[in-house]
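ZP: hey, is the pyridoxal-5'-phosphate complex queued? I don't see it on the tracker
AM: it wasn't, my bad. submitting now with these inputs:
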Amino acid sequence: MAITGQLDLASESSRDDWKKIQIAYFSMEIAVAPNMPTYSGGLGVLAGDTLRSAADTGLPLVAVTLLHRKGYFHQHLNTDGVQTEEDEPWKPETLLQPLEPLAAITIQGRPVMVRAWRTDIVGTDGHIVPVIFLDTDLDPNDIWDRQLTNHLYGGDTFYRLCQETVLGIGGIEILTALGCQPTVYHMNEGHAALLTIGLLQQQVADGNLLDATQDDLDAVRAQCVFTTHTPVPAGHDRFSLDQARQVLGEERTQALEKFGCCHDGMLNMTYVALRFSRYVNGVAMQHGRVSREMFPEYSVQAITNGVHAATWIQPSLQALLDERVSSWRRDNLYLRFAIGIAPSEIRSRHLDAKRKLIDTVRERVGVTLQEDKFTIGFARRAAAYKRADMLFSDPARLNRLAEEYGGIQIVYAGKAHPHDQVGKAIIHHVIEASAKLTSDHIRIVYLENYEWDLGAILTAGADLWLNTPRRPYEASGTSGMKAAMNGVPSLSTLDGWWIEGCIEGATGWAIVESEDEVQEAESLYDKLENEILPLYYHYPDRWAEIMRMAMAINGSFFNTHRMLYQYVTNAYFPGDAPLRRKFQPELVLTR
Ligand SMILES: *Cc1c(COP(=O)(O)O)cnc(C)c1O
């Protein structure tokens, strides 16, 4: 298989250029740029980072997602910690180029026209990864259909199934209309699973899906790769068969049933993807294991997530790396050589990021944090399993630690899904408890509207990144990887990526797991008291060593360049030696 060089997609895209594309990456959400609210959190950020690495490494890949005209919501928090939400509309017309061809798909027996917009992600050497946004807001469409690409994770399951139909089936139709014929289709989570039905429709040349032969199924399967992100059965995307019949129609629903995509009387998108994929993986080693237990009849591999270094490393540290570690942008594996930088230099660059965080807190909530005080960052979706309030389980002890060592500052952020009452209650509780705890020694703030920019400021500017998920609910987690690249160690329960990333006392610390949550919290306090606070306040040089190890050891591995290289060699083109060589890190090739 020949791999193409530069794709000339920047000019008026010709069919020839679209033909060079070999991989189509489908994701319900993609964080393309900070000013485009087309993502809700970790899944979308991962998708965006994957594409940025694909652009850096010259992979011939196109991404497909929905337009989400009304964005993901903007979070407001009142002084009592009550969350309210507002649409975050944006103007695709000003940021994207319209594409010519339209596609027609059938939803609820009606024709729905789909159009496409595009933007380009440009890599370090100029390689382009086009991102296609599907849009149903077109004149000929029914008023209801026109709103299908408005709200990311909005509406009910009926709305969601319609959206997934647009993404999967509409996406395949648009790629075909563009003349794009990838050999690999990558489903980033089950939301994109209906692309398999789009492919099967083409395979049977618009004959009846129920007549599909084993060869037809195998032909679809040979093209599909599926990444699951969900660690618990309840998290998988499911729809009632009634709903499936209504939205997809009788033929497609019967076909899905016949091909084993239903489970417990429901259409289960994870099973759709599993049935039709030749390669399936979880997003960390433990998550692979957990997924194999959930789906014992399938072979599930693991490729641990990463983050895109040049997106998440803060500017002043980037400047230092540019001086000392050439080529780290093109190949994130070179971050290993951060081990040659003096720890004091890393510490001084970190202070720049900490000042930026302090400025941000002052501007947003009018609280002044101090740059010489130990600062903990905690930011993530407010979900029960993440236990954002574990730090508050023994306020007296926290207070004593802060007093004894010279102070603790904590910066929180995170949204709860609009329908998640438990998540909202957690935010409320954290804010309420914070107000009670605040003293001369403890400052706690909760910043509203956690999104890309705030994520970057927090993960780079904190001294310690805290994560307290209940095992095994965190499939991977990626914010701690951003922190590591910025020289910020983590303190976390051993879940998701941290099982692989934690070298105790070198890259961070593990909270010891226990059946008893009180005991787990004790371990959190023990680590702060016996290891972390003494090091930070009394042995700053040893602390800086830890910062450097977090960067060199974890930054060089938990990045999307390495992750994508693993997708290329294990999932996209296994056994294809020339292609593998193309993406072999240069580190290995040079003598
Ligand atoms: C990185 C990131 C996430 C994902 O982080 P987790 O550790 O998986 O919670 C979510 N939201 C934003 C805005 C991010 O930048």
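AM: back. Confidence is low (pLDDT under 50) at residues 1-6, 584-591.
ZP: great, adding it to the tracker
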